[in-house]
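Researcher: Next entry in the queue.
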Amino acid sequence: MSDGRCRWLVGIVAVLAIGYVAFGGDRTSGPGARGLPPGAQLPPFAVPLAQSGVDCDEPQDPCDANVARRAGEGSAGSRPACEVRGPGVLNLCELAERGPLVLAFLAARGGDCADGLDRLDRVAARHPGVQVAAVGIRGDLGELRAIVRRHRWRFAVGWDRDGILANLYGVAVCPHITYARWHGRAQSTSLGTVGERELERRIDAAVAASRRAGWRPSEG
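Model: Structure for this entry, 220 residues:
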């Protein structure tokens, strides 16, 4: 493992601890480093899209992740995260409403990790109706944008500046991929780079579970 990747993992461990202290309570206590258990509801969030022209130096800073479940939750968000939508926003609730979901987390400085998401991009193209997105944890927005341009991913990429999603989703390795069925119930989690056959298997399982729940591709 490269020194850069080791530093990122150490930073994520610190984020897991800081996120719990900063937000407190069961609402943001993380699921552990193995990710969300099957059947768990994905924690809602809204983060800026890396591909958008968002300016994080604006007087009303739009770049911290909103993870509020209700209005008026202070630093978690003044509005419920599910309500924060728009062309420059990656919103978990909006994705989950459309169909099965594959959500990847990466480090802005993780070259090996970014290469692993190239496989996800290829596999995702074979699954119309499945929602695919990624979130860069901490790091620099400019670096994340450069990675997205270089790899030419077709899925949306958001940016979690303060790293709270690492706590909520139990992210400790890169990439960390959560597979969820329609309406945002966790199906499984893969940790680290996996091959295309394994990605296909996990996505197919999320699609099958979504179909059993009544989802059809035309609704995605």
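Model: The first strand starts at residue 46 and ends at 48.
Researcher: Noted, moving on.
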